[in-house]
Amino acid sequence: MAESESGAEKSEEPTEKRLRESREKGQIARSKELNTLAVMLAGAGGLLASGGGLASALLEIMRGNFSLPREVLFDERNMVIWLLASGEMAIEALLPLFLALLIASIVGPIALGGWLFSAQAMAPKLSRMNPLAGLKRMFSTKALVELLKALAKFLVILLVALAVLSADRDDLLAMAHEPLEAAILHAAQVVGWSALWMACGIILIAAVDVPFQLWDNKQKLMMTKQEVRDEYKDSEGKPEVKSRIRQLQREMAERRMMQAVPQADVVITNPTHFAVALKYDPAKGSAPVLLAKGGDFTALKIREIAQEHRVMLLESPALARAVFYSTELDQEIPAGLYLAVAQVLAYVYQLRQYQAGKGKRPGPLPDLPIPPDLRRDE
């Protein structure tokens, strides 16, 4: 297991935040060997595909430049024209190969780690100029691995090159007896196949390097238990801060709730343990809405505000408990309580008519129908 600078064991998988931050810093798995393999394969393939065209272009350039008229040789302007024409022919012949190399140089890095542009990775770091840090990197495990890879690459390329030269020995000797044009075409073919076989030799090194780079990058991103806890605190907030925020949110919600009590049509009480404030708007044609609810001290506060603003107070323990447990603030009461609340509102209307001297005093509030599934006992 890897260890942090503090000596703690890095035993935890990297979090999403750690992975995201590492990408922003440009710290992702990259394999130089995979990039080299892609470029070499593209170059070898390009030589095989366009080798004949390259050889023909080379022959054409040689014919043109080795057979210049005498008057052209002594005319500087004509020499410039011939030079530009030769350069244009060379560029046209090499363009397919250059495009293949360009694509390979882009696809190679993207194949491992994906596309990434990081301004932080490009920014200069003074820590890299520290001689002690440089010595530490030179004698680190990664430096040893890079040295072993370089030696392995050299040996593999050397063995493949010797094998290719041995296999192509007859072809190389035969070129000396071939006409110039045929020898150039033959040489282009031999060079293309030789480059392809040497590129295939890099496959062995890349097959080892890619898993190592993935493993090494993961080890660098591993976290200690303390780092995971600290990150959780930073992202989710410290418990005491979260508790304080929830307390402030409750206080704000309670203040808004108390401000809505004077708008209620009736406050139904338990009479002391619960209090709920209901509002019915006939213009909307919907069910009554719960404006405020609370128990114990909050219930007492709701009753006090209701008395101050002359909101009707009615005692109905069963209905108060049912509304309290079944309805959230600013929500309509459930359908099962429609009839009970309608009777309460009708009773409140009759009391108001009596208080205004327009009717008889109503009797006591009748027993209200509370469905069994909404009934709550003390």
Largest sheet geometry? 4 strands, mixed
Helix/strand/pairing category: alpha+beta
Shape: elongated
Overall residue-averaged pLDDT value = 79
Helix content class: 55-70%
Give the count of helical stretches.
14
Order of helices and strands: EEHHHHHHHHHHHEEEHEHH
Strand order of the largest sheet: 5-4-3-6
**Integer-rounded radius of gyration:** 43 Å
Q: Give the N-terminus to C-terminus distance in angstroms.
A: 58 Å
In total, the number of strands is 6
State the low-pLDDT regions, or none: none
Strand content: 5-15%
**Assembly of the depicted chains:** single chain
Written description of the protein model:
The protein has helices at 16-24, 32-66, 70-73, 76-111, 119-122, 131-138, 141-167, 169-175, 180-221, 225-236, 239-260, 297-308, 317-326, 338-355, and strands at 2-3, 9-10, 266-269, 274-279, 289-295, 312-315. It has 14 helices and six strands. A hairpin with a 5-residue loop joins strand 1 and strand 2 (9-10). It is elongated, with a radius of gyration of 43 Å.
List keywords for this structure.
alpha+beta; single chain; 378 residues; 7% strand; 4-stranded mixed sheet
Task: Annotate the secondary structure layout.
Layout: E1 2-3, E2 9-10, H1 16-24, H2 32-66, H3 70-73, H4 76-111, H5 119-122, H6 131-138, H7 141-167, H8 169-175, H9 180-221, H10 225-236, H11 239-260, E3 266-269, E4 274-279, E5 289-295, H12 297-308, E6 312-315, H13 317-326, H14 338-355
Parallel strand pairs: 3-6
Antiparallel strand pairs: 1-2, 3-4, 4-5
Helix pairs in contact: 2-4, 2-9, 7-8, 7-9
